[in-house]
Amino acid sequence: MAERRWISRDAAATEALGEAIGRAAFEGLVIALDGDLGTGKTCFVRGLARGLGVPDPVTSPTYALMASHAGRLALHHFDAWMEGRERAFLSDGGAELLGGAGVSAVEWAARVAPALPAERLELGFEHAGPTERRIRAAARGSGERSARIARILDGLPSIPDLDPQP
User: Fold this and answer.
1) Cα-flanking dihedrals φ and ψ of residue 129, to 5°?
2) Own/partner pairs for 10-13, CB < 8 Å, 24+ apart?
């Protein structure tokens, strides 16, 4: 399992991390995002969308459950924050999109964990100060997709205001 950790000094650095991952993303990539409110999950997805070539503005789909955006690869952005979302997620076809065409980003992923594929990129976000965030990224699973995710993490460029942590 590959794992990386950073301290993000500001929202721009969190978006830049998302953009770098989006540029390296592949068809079928599932990204599971977890962390408290305001820790940078949607900020990361905005950057991810830029890296995927999505021209649309990206906001959290909290009340819509899912938003899809066209780009180099389609972005399927899910939000499982509200109570009962795991049932809506499954009944509305979310499980079929995961690991299929495009890239799927799932905010509050722990709430729908049984529906997520074993091979995925997990990102955890924590408050580390007024504008700073701790970000942990890990490749989960043991197949070819997990190996590709590990290569993405290993090949990420240096990003200003995103400090690697041991």
Assistant:
1) 165, -175
2) 10/131, 10/132, 10/161, 11/40, 11/43, 11/131, 12/161, 13/159, 13/160, 13/161, 13/162
The CB density around residue 144, as the number of other CB atoms within 10 Å, is 9
pTM of the model: 0.90
Domains belonging to the chain, first-starting first, are 3-104+115-157 (3.40.50.300)
Question: CB of 126 within 8 A of CB of 110?
Answer: no
119: left (phi over 0), alpha (psi -120 to 50) or beta: beta
Place of tokens 């991810």: 48
**CB of 164 closer than 8 Å to CB of 5:** yes
List, for residues 15-62, the tens digit of each pLDDT value: 999 999 999 999 999 999 999 999 999 999 999 999 999 998 887 755
Q: Which two tokens stand for residue 49?
A: 């969308």
Coil vs helix vs strand at 141: coil
